[in-house]
TrEMBL record:
This is CRYD protein. It comes from Podilymbus podiceps (Pied-billed grebe). Keywords: Chromophore. GO terms for biological process: photoreactive repair. It comes from the Eukaryota. Residues 1-77 form the Photolyase/cryptochrome alpha/beta domain. The lineage of its organism: Eukaryota, Metazoa, Chordata, Craniata, Vertebrata. GO terms for molecular function: damaged DNA binding; deoxyribodipyrimidine photo-lyase activity; FAD binding. InterPro entries: Crypto/Photolyase_N_sf, Cryptochrome/DNA_photolyase_1, DNA_photolyase_N, Rossmann-like_a/b/a_fold.
Amino acid sequence: FDPRHYLGTRCYGFPKTGPHRLRFLLESVKDLRETLKKKGSTLVVRKGKPEDVVRDLITQLGSVSAVVFHEEVRERL
């Protein structure tokens, strides 16, 4: 969870992720974790800036050969 997603937007000052969306995200992550657990897997969940969290996970795991990510599409003004 990127803390920057819970701040106001640049243009309008509204939360990027309000309480209803946050609840949906938390319930979805919980459900995904439970589903993966039933299949013998797990889900790593972290709070922080992705560029820091991913770097720390790579360091912790030690033998990472590739990292794939999706960048969020941002508004153009």
